[in-house]
Amino acid sequence: MLKKISAVCIGFLAFQPADVDAQTDSSKKSVTTFTGSVDAYYRFPFSDPPGTATNNLTSFTNSKNSFELGMASIKVEHTVGKVSATADLGFGRRAQEFSYNDVGTTLTAVKQAFVSYAPSSSVKFTLGKWATHVGYELLDAYANRNYSMSYGFSYGPFFHTGIKADISLGGKSAMMIGVANPTDYVSAPNGVKMVIAQFSTATKNDKLKAYLNFQGGTGISQFDLVLMGTLSSQFNIAYDGTIQTSKIGTTNSSWKAHALYLNYDPTSMFGLTLRADYFDDRKLSPVLGVNKVFATTLSGNIKIDNLTIIPEFRIDAAKNAVFQKGDGTATKSNGAFILAAVYRF
Known about the structure:
Elements: E1 19-22, E2 29-45, E3 66-80, E4 83-91, H1 93-98, E5 110-120, E6 123-131, H2 151-154, E7 159-170, E8 173-180, E9 194-202, E10 208-217, E11 220-230, E12 235-248, E13 251-267, E14 270-283, E15 292-304, E16 307-318, E17 323-324, E18 330-331, E19 333-344
Antiparallel strand pairs: 1-2, 2-3, 2-19, 3-4, 4-5, 5-6, 6-7, 7-8, 8-9, 9-10, 10-11, 11-12, 12-13, 13-14, 14-15, 15-16, 16-19, 17-18
């Protein structure tokens, strides 16, 4: 469910998800799985600057009074014996913003592409590009209960390209450690490499789960903590807290984010999520110009088979006047309504 935990629409395709064929070696089976999703949305801002600019400061919903395609996605996974490969392709605004360093190339369509080898049941090695382990929210709309994204998600990281090892520590505990290109770069031949890591654990009944995440390299470090708790069959809660600091040359940058998610599902067909999202652009960071923002988002999840309809209200309030009204005057707050449809197959 997590974004970024190693590993948060209108349908137009349909696949049966499992296709199993025997190999020449009868002791091995190859399994090919096709999955995918489509999401679309309409965003109505309560106020926005004149012209084409918007007050949206987070990822994927930078539009106003317009019907938009979020992303059409197809994922193919193949496993035979101890080896596997994954190709995850996406087309649309989400895929382009996710791979923002590759805009103008065909690589923007490659959300994930990696190969894995598991020499034993407790160790797996992976090489390629994959969604980051840092944070709670995910690129794919169907994996999140809110349609708009938090500030912590939007300001990174998005993905890593490198090599990693996932290691079971026994019981409910595991760790991941790896080396990757600089954050959000598929190709960086002259870049300093990053160390990435995660420790995860849970209670025996899985009602409490914890993930401690890290990425760091020369001049940059980020620590992230995700907690997930199940209080009842209808109510669960999650927390994501992160802090990133960097020093490149004479430029210092520091920001932190906290997000709390309250999830309530009175029936199998309807749920509510309230997200309280705080972002502190603390020190000489170019993100929001040394500012504090608190965003409150209430999202409904109406489920009809594979389709989820998400009506959403969002209010962003900042310490400084970083938003604009329709007449161009500055303001400290902004609101918007989103209606999204997400289909998964």
